[in-house]
Amino acid sequence: MATQYEVEHNIKPTTSTTRRRRQVDMSTFTAHLHTLDPETPSTASTTQQRPPHEPHNNPHAVPNPADTAALFRLLQDQMGTLATTAPTESNRAFLQSLVEALELDVAHPPRQLEGVTQEFLDGLDRVPRRALKDDDACPICAERFLDDPYPLVVELPCHGSHRFDLECVGPWLRGKGTCPLCRKELGKRREVVQRGGGGGGEGEEEEEDDVNGLYA
């Protein structure tokens, strides 16, 4: 099954591990997120259309706390695995801080996922190869971007220097919705707000997008 990296670069799926030596496979996280969030495309859906007999997720379903905790545990385990092979002490400390930040979500999972939408993730600025320096590296996997023949690097709107491999930062953004470096909120999901109704009637609910939150 094709990853987002392979889809955006129009290359065939491969089992080779030479492209990203330290990058952890996030396919399990993505598959689990797909069961909790109806807007998340499954890995298979990037390359083929959903079969007619396959049911869609209920768009009004509220994630089960146990399932939400399991999602954050998957992300926590991935970051912990990277920390065990961190090439520098600073990278290990950074990854450990992410592991610790996820502990509260595992112990007390939120009622709803607070991460960014897939649309927000798809709209992040891609950094062209010519704009990368030789020693620029992903803060999460600590690999130099230019060591990849097809770097897929995104720049977060909070700061021009906060750049990551998309496959490294994507799961964190979908789950937490904050920059891993400065922890600033980057985008908020559509919220249902209560509007006061006129004439003594009951208030009506309206969906409202936090447009400003897209680049808060």
TrEMBL record:
Pfam family, one: zf-RING_2
Domain RING-type: start-end pairs: 138-183
Keyword entries, A-Z: Metal-binding, Zinc, Zinc-finger
Claim: Ligase is one of the keywords in the record: no
GO biological process terms on file: protein ubiquitination
Record keyword Metal-binding present: yes
Domain of life: Eukaryota
GO molecular function, one term: zinc ion binding
Biased composition (Basic and acidic residues): 1-11
Record region (Disordered): 1-65, 192-216
Biased composition (Acidic residues): 202-216
One GO term describing the cellular component: cytoplasm
Extent of Polar residues compositional bias: 40-50
Transmembrane residue ranges: none
Protein name stated in the entry: RING-type domain-containing protein
Organism the protein comes from: Thermothielavioides terrestris (strain ATCC 38088 / NRRL 8126)
Lineage: Eukaryota, Fungi, Dikarya, Ascomycota, Pezizomycotina
